């Protein structure tokens, strides 16, 4: 099955060059609007050393460059971008068939990177996919597919990632059973030796039993090995084919050579049993690999195929693809929600456990938002669709998890370097082993058997699966807990986090502040609140919503404001009833020269209680601005916030509170949570600098936030952790997203990262250990080829099974809502 993940953009391809030393490139250029733009791009390209000619066609938005062959598309692209334009990039997702080990991964990556226009190629053995980035050109995906085919594998384009996955199909087991049945009689004499019984099957019967296994069921190894050899490389299949062929060939020679004994020492059992064991190992490995993708399949299975849409008062069942944003969708009790939406009628409890990890159903009523894939409780709900298909929360979660599982962790680079030379080195060791035993000891037969053992003990499969299997299992477990890890680097870095910096509002607090006190300079509190509400009427800031809510609760008539303008990190200004007003922080008031002395004592008292204080100032014509009054806000600490901080401290992680709020409010929250490092009154643009400065305290720093103002700090941190209850901007800037907005998940993510990293290291230890210990033992004649084959066959199985042990980690108990405490923001 094969489909495209992103809009198609063709690959830059070399055209027939005018001279052997030069190459002609043609690629697309975006952003040009006139002839001057085209001239500017031409000029930028011609400045590059080695460029003989460059022409740009504005109508087709194509550039054609004749340049030295070694110049490369990257430098041409950089020149275009420096001129202020873009060469379009395209991401492709390919399904790769036929890979068996880490050497296969290295060969496919090498083949893809040789395609002109490819800027990145990453192949994942566990998911059997390739992620490829290309630039410009006009040849599409065809060169990529052709390159994979030349390397000896089959590639297809993954097209519809939003469609439900086909049912998982297992490879037929009958070949394994038949191969086992043919090999068993060959093994029985070896087993009988344990009890002192010496007997052997006739040579002709051994030949009859071993041949179908060698050239029937083992043909797959010859075919894949030949493809690798033809591509100038090697893989596991080549090692198995060489090793078993040597054992089979030696047996034929000993049986048929002139003067052979009546019952010669044959090795048919070695060739047949090794092939059978490798088949068994690959079958077990495939089963284990399917379990590592269980999280993705579970998420995709949440997507209903139809929705009950209400149109013109009539409920109609429609395919999900036909539902549009704004449609009214009816969800009956017990049904899955087909779309992301807002409740416009009814109330119910919704089970979102498979999406957010929240174990208990959550109440949803009029005006609340719900997530597609959740299970409706006992109430009938009418939803207004907000997102469907690829833009739904569920689809975005699936894409993020798939992306994280497809990417490579930094530690994988070492494995890639080893894999690139693994097979040639093993073949070289096998040749040296055979020659050494023959030339030095005169034992050519034993030397050949030892060389066979060297070939079959080598296990590049385990090397290729060690890291991706652990990452797939770890990200899958995280997804079920409501933790979305967007890339493997964030997962690997998280285990070394030494400092976690928290935003306050919406991260440690509920983010729903309310007005708890007002003070007016002239005593008219109602007028103060009316004016403040008028300024905040069009704002979505939490404090703005608190002001407008307070005005509604008091039944105040809020006038219209004019010329309103938000001042980043400070507040808002505008005109209300002809008066110029400014509402914001004490810092802004001081910058404006506002005299706050009349209300300073009241403000200090409120801030001492931990309240957030905003000031309203009026600027009369010709007079300095004066303080009209102040508003104090309070928020509720999240139930799990204190426990989350304690858990981080128990893990040896320091915590820091970074807030734009006044110092009194920030310190009050920090004191209740046990955070001793407070950075208060930090402007949004300065949060990133604070995070950077924290590197003096720890090598790896994490930032946890939820708002647009946190995005720069999230991007600046080594690991950005965003609350899904916050803004999309914050989630895009972060490497980790917490679907429940629960600060306790920060420690959970760190613990899961540590467990995953431990599994990666264990897997690599075993994968390298199999080879570092097994190959010398085989070379010195201490391993029978059958035992060597068994070790190789089960090496990859053990690696994947070890990774699957991550799924046994149980979720932590969640705090009760009764643990919530009233604090100030």
Which key terms come to mind for this protein?
825 residues, alpha+beta, seven-stranded antiparallel sheet, 31 strands, 21% strand, elongated, disordered N terminus
Describe what you observe in this structure:
With about 800 residues, the protein is of the alpha+beta class. The chain contains 27 helices and 31 strands. The strands form six sheets. It has a seven-stranded mixed β-sheet, with helices on both faces. Strands 20, 21, 22, 23, 24, 25 and 31 form a seven-stranded antiparallel β-sheet that branches. Helix 14 packs antiparallel against helix 26. It is elongated and about 120 Å long.
Summary?
The chain is built from 27 helices and 31 strands.
């Amino acid at each position: 099955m094969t489909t495209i993940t992103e809009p198609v953009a063709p690959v830059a391809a070399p055209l027939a060059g005018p001279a052997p030393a030069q190459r002609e490139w043609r690629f697309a250029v975006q952003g040009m609007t006139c002839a001057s733009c085209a001239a500017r791009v031409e000029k930028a390209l011609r400045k590059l050393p080695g460029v003989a000619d460059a022409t740009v066609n504005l109508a087709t938005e194509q550039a054609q460059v004749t340049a030295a062959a070694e110049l490369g598309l990257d430098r041409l692209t950089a020149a275009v971008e420096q001129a202020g334009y873009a060469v379009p990039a395209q991401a492709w997702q390919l399904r790769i068939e036929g890979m068996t080990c880490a050497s296969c991964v290295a060969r496919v990556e090498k083949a893809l990177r040789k395609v002109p226009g490819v800027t990145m190629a990453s192949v994942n053995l566990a998911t059997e996919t390739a992620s490829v980035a290309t630039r410009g050109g006009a040849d599409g995906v065809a060169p990529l597919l052709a390159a994979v085919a030349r390397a000896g594998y089959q590639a297809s384009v993954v097209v519809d990632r939003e469609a439900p996955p086909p049912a998982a199909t297992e490879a037929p087991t009958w070949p394994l059973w038949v191969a086992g049945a043919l090999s068993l009689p060959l093994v029985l004499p070896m087993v009988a030796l344990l009890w002192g019984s010496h007997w052997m099957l006739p040579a002709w019967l051994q030949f009859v039993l071993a041949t179908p296994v060698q050239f029937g069921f083992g043909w797959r190894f010859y075919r894949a090995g030949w493809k690798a050899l033809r591509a100038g490389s090697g893989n596991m299949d080549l090692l198995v084919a060489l090793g078993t062929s040597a054992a089979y060939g030696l047996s034929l020679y000993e049986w048929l050579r002139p003067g052979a004994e009546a019952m010669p020492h044959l090795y048919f059992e070695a060739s047949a049993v090794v092939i059978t064991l490798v088949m068994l190992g690959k079958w077990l490995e495939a089963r284990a690999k399917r379990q590592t993708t269980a999280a993705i399949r579970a998420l995709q299975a949440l997507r209903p195929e139809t929705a009950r849409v209400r149109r013109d008062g009539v409920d109609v069942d429609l395919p999900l693809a036909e539902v549009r944003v704004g449609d009214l969708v009816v969800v009956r009790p017990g049904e899955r929600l087909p779309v992301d939406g807002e409740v416009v009628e009814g109330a119910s409890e919704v089970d979102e456990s498979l999406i957010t990890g929240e174990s208990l159903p959550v109440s949803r009523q009029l005006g609340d938002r719900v997530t597609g894939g959740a299970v409706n409780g006992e109430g009938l709900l009418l939803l207004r669709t907000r997102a469907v298909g690829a833009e739904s929360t569920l689809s975005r979660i699936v894409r993020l998890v798939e992306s994280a599982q497809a990417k490579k962790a930094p530690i994988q680079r070492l494995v890639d370097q080893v894999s690139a030379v693994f097979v040639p080195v093993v073949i070289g060791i096998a040749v040296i082993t055979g020659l050494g035993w023959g030339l030095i000891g005169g034992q050519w037969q034993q030397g050949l058997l030892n060389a066979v053992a060297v070939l079959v003990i080598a296990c590049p499969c385990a090397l290729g699966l060690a890291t991706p299997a652990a990452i797939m299992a770890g990200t899958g477990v995280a997804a079920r807990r409501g933790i979305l890890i967007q890339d493997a680097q964030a997962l690997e870095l998280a285990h070394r986090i030494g400092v976690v910096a928290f935003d306050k509002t919406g991260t440690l607090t509920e983010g729903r502040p309310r007005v708890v006190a007002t003070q007016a300079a002239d005593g008219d509190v109602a007028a103060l609140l009316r004016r403040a509400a008028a300024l905040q009427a069009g704002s979505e800031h939490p404090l703005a919503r608190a002001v407008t809510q307070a005005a509604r609760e008091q039944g105040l008539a809020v006038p219209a404001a004019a010329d309103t303008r938000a001042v980043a990190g400070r507040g808002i200004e505008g005109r209300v009833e002809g008066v110029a007003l400014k509402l914001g922080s004490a810092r802004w008031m001081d910058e404006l020269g506002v005299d706050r002395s009349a209300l300073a004592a009241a403000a200090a008292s409120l801030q001492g209680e931990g309240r957030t204080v905003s000031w309203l100032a009026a600027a009369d014509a010709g007079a300095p601005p004066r303080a009209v009054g102040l508003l104090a806000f309070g928020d509720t600490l999240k139930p799990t916030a204190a426990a989350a901080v304690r858990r981080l401290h128990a893990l040896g992680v320091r915590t820091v509170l970074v807030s734009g709020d006044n110092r009194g409010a920030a310190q009050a929250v920090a004191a209740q949570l046990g955070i001793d490092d407070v950075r208060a009154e930090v402007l949004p643009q300065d949060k990133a600098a604070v995070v950077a400065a924290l590197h003096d305290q720890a090598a790896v720093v994490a930032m946890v936030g939820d708002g647009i103002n946190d995005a720069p700090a999230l991007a600046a941190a080594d690991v950005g952790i965003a609350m899904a209850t916050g803004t999309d901007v914050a989630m895009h800037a972060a490497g980790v997203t917490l679907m429940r907005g629960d600060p306790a998940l920060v420690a959970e993510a760190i613990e899961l990262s540590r467990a995953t990293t431990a599994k990666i290291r264990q897997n690599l230890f075993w994968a390298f250990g199999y080879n570092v210990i097994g190959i010398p033992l085989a070379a010195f004649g201490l391993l029978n080829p059958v035992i060597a084959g068994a070790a190789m066959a089960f090496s990859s199985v053990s690696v994947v099974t070890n990774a699957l042990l991550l799924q046994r980690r149980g979720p932590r108990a969640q705090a009760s809502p009764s643990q919530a405490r009233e604090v100030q923001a």
